[in-house]
Amino acid sequence: MNHGLNAVEKPRFVFWAYLTSAAATFVGGIPLVMHFGLWGAVYGMVVSGVAFTMAVAVGFFFNVYVKACRIVAPTLHLGPPPGPLAENKP
Question: Residue 80: which residues within 8 A CB-CB, separation 6 or more?
Fold first, then answer.
């Protein structure tokens, strides 16, 4: 998903994902290392990876949702079709 967001020119989502991962490392990873030692480091890496994956997934699905709304919105025309036929109503 990281490369997908970069491909659709949305690298800011990837930046926020890395920032989220760093915050999870500082908030969760360091206390885990201090309390559990080597196993805490392993758990901290898992927490950091999960935070990164969740943040990238949110950015990716948000981008897909926005693009889907742009495609669907113009097709939901509820009024009369524009043009000369719509103007000649009695």
Answer: 86, 89
Domain ranges in the chain? 2-87
The structure tokens 């897909």 sit at 64
C-beta atoms surrounding 4 within 10 Å: 15
* Closest to 22 in 3D by CA, of 40, 49, 2: 49
Decide if 58 contacts 20 (C-beta within 8 A).
no
Question: How much is the pLDDT for 87?
Answer: 55
- Better-scored residue on pLDDT, 33 or 7: 33
Q: Residue 72 and residue 83: Cα distance in Å, rounded?
A: 22
pTM to 2 decimal places: 0.69
Kindly indicate the confidence band of residue 54, based on its pLDDT and cuts at 50, 70 and 90: very high
